[in-house]
Design brief:
single chain, mainly alpha
Length: 526
């Protein structure tokens, strides 16, 4: 039998505990990723030749498109794993998992074939520069990376299952160890000047080990778990795709938004600019991840509540999650917006006006996506609203791609135009579609929805922004430590004003009780 099963009647306390545990572990893992990411990006950006750094970034972008071959099955596996924890039907889950896994194996063959076929045209397509020996080295790197991604592609299914099983905290432990080992290896390889091939090989070996560990963990959590060719059922493919194809369209749009910008820059501007754009995109991406760690556990929770027919709690979960995510996003967005220019200078010695302006546009776009789109999409995807979400996501992706190309071809904006092509769809979709969709699902007016999720925190953020700017102008920070100290007054104002006007009386009481219990527990421990 499985290690545990969610009882729909038991429900509330256990589900809330799982969500809190998942979110807390996500933030610990995110902090680790942030620290390592900042250090590793600096080492690679300053140590590698600009074209090699751009090529390294571009490889991850290009093979990010391998997710297109997922066809949304990853989201389907999360959903089916969550359903199995409610109903206990692991036999059906095993058939579905095995079917998806062996479809993934077929996709791996396709990735390998495309990699081999792309190598002869790689230098022309990416405008690679340098000696024939150097270009041959980059082509060899590309080949190793592509074949490695093909091998690893099916194994990613185990991470999706752990998410659906509400074992995100265990998944994060494995991923954290993998991240630490990868970072140490990459920094050592760069210092020893062993080249991109060694960097790729090290990354692939560590990732392979990570997925094997996750597979072992799935087997331990679910003793009834089985995988085998005999469980493959091609008739199930159509059944699974009735859900997954729409999740796939959402993934497709995300890939267009996140990955295509760098391809557009490489094809229409210069591969050297990819590295610069990637740095400011990375800042907005870190902000987005830091704001949305709650959502990783929210999907399985929403699927569990939906399977339990607890629609009232589903609506409340959407509103409360949106409120929490909106508060976290605003707390992070305001200081990042104010301190982006000195941050880029201190971190990477980057003072390019186009990088700074692109960063501002990408940050605003990410804030709109986090606050108005991501919570809504995460909950509704698990509640059979995948069709409308897929249409909206696909429209956003196509609009993003089209505007980025237009701004590159017909303006002199450069990478700023690419960032603007990301911002405009975020504004249109957030105001015109995602907010009304959330309001209809929660049965509230747009005014009530915005008041509940954002009104107090926006007022607090506006007050704090004035303080942040005043401190920055009074004593411009010249080091990372000075930057942190410079932001303390603004952060104090932000936290204090949010406590007064951003939280209601019940929330303040809950916060006080949480702090009091924590202090009391610490005294008892002593």
């Amino acid at each position: 039998m499985s290690e545990d099963r969610v009882d729909p009647q038991d429900g509330h306390g256990e589900i809330r505990s799982r969500l809190f545990r998942s979110t807390a572990s996500n933030y610990v893992f995110l902090l680790l990723r942030l620290i390592i990411g900042v250090l590793l990006t600096r080492v690679l950006f300053l140590s590698l030749p600009r074209q090699e750094y751009g090529f390294w970034v571009l490889m991850w972008s290009v093979f990010g498109y391998a997710l297109l071959l997922d066809f949304g099955f990853g989201s389907a596996l999360q959903k089916y794993a969550s359903q199995a924890t409610v109903h206990g039907d692991w036999t059906d889950f095993n058939r579905r998992f095995s079917t998806v896994f062996f479809v993934y194996c077929g996709m791996s063959v396709l990735i390998a074939v495309v990699t081999l076929g792309s190598q002869p045209i790689l230098a022309r397509a990416l405008r690679l520069e340098g000696s024939p020996e150097h270009i041959a080295h980059l082509e060899k790197t590309f080949l190793l990376f592509g074949l490695g991604r093909a091998l690893l592609f099916p194994l990613g299914a185990f991470a999706e299952v752990l998410t659906g099983l509400h074992r995100i905290h265990l998944r994060n432990v494995i991923a954290a160890l993998s991240l630490l080992v990868t970072a140490v290896l990459l920094m050592g390889i760069v210092q020893l000047q062993l080249g991109l091939v060694a960097m790729v090989a090290a990354s692939l070996v560590v990732e392979l080990t990570t997925y094997v560990a996750m597979a072992v963990l799935v087997r331990r959590v679910v003793s009834d778990f089985r995988i085998g060719w005999g469980l493959f059922d091609r008739r199930l493919v159509a059944s699974i795709m009735s859900f997954s194809i729409f999740a796939y369209m959402i993934t497709l749009s995300h890939l267009v938004i996140l990955q295509t910008d760098e391809l557009v820059i490489s094809a229409l501007l210069s591969v050297s600019l990819v590295g610069t754009y990637h740095v400011v995109w990375r800042v907005s991406n870190i902000f987005q991840q830091a704001s949305t760690q709650l959502l990783d556990g929210l999907g399985p929770v929403a699927a569990t509540l939906f399977q339990s027919n607890d629609h009232d709690r589903l609506k409340n979960t959407l509103l409360q999650s949106g409120r929490v995510v909106g508060a976290i996003a605003t707390f992070l967005f305001v200081p990042l917006l104010v301190y982006l220019k000195p941050l880029l200078k201190i971190w990477l010695e980057l003072e390019s006006p186009s990088a700074y302006h692109s960063g501002i546009l990408l940050l605003v776009s990410a804030y709109l996506m986090v606050v108005f789109k991501m919570t809504t999409a995460r909950v509704l995807l698990m509640c059979e609203r995948e069709k409308i979400l897929a249409v909206l996501a696909l429209a956003e992706g196509l609009l993003n791609l089209g505007l980025s190309v237009v701004f590159c071809l017909f303006t002199q904006l450069g990478i700023v135009g690419v960032a603007l092509g990301t911002l405009i769809p975020s504004v249109v979709l957030a105001a015109g579609f995602y907010t009304p969709l959330a309001c209809r699902f929660a049965s509230v007016s747009a005014f009530q929805y915005l008041r509940q999720t954002l009104s107090g925190v926006l007022l607090s953020g506006s007050v704090a922004a004035v303080v942040y700017v005043a401190c920055r102008e009074a004593a411009p920070p010249e080091s990372l430590g000075a930057l942190v100290l410079n932001g303390i007054p603004g952060t104090a104002v932000l936290a204090g004003s949010f406590l007064l006007v951003g939280m209601n009386a019940r929330e303040r009481q809950q916060l006080y009780a949480l702090v009091y219990r924590g202090a009391l527990g610490g005294e008892r421990a002593q």
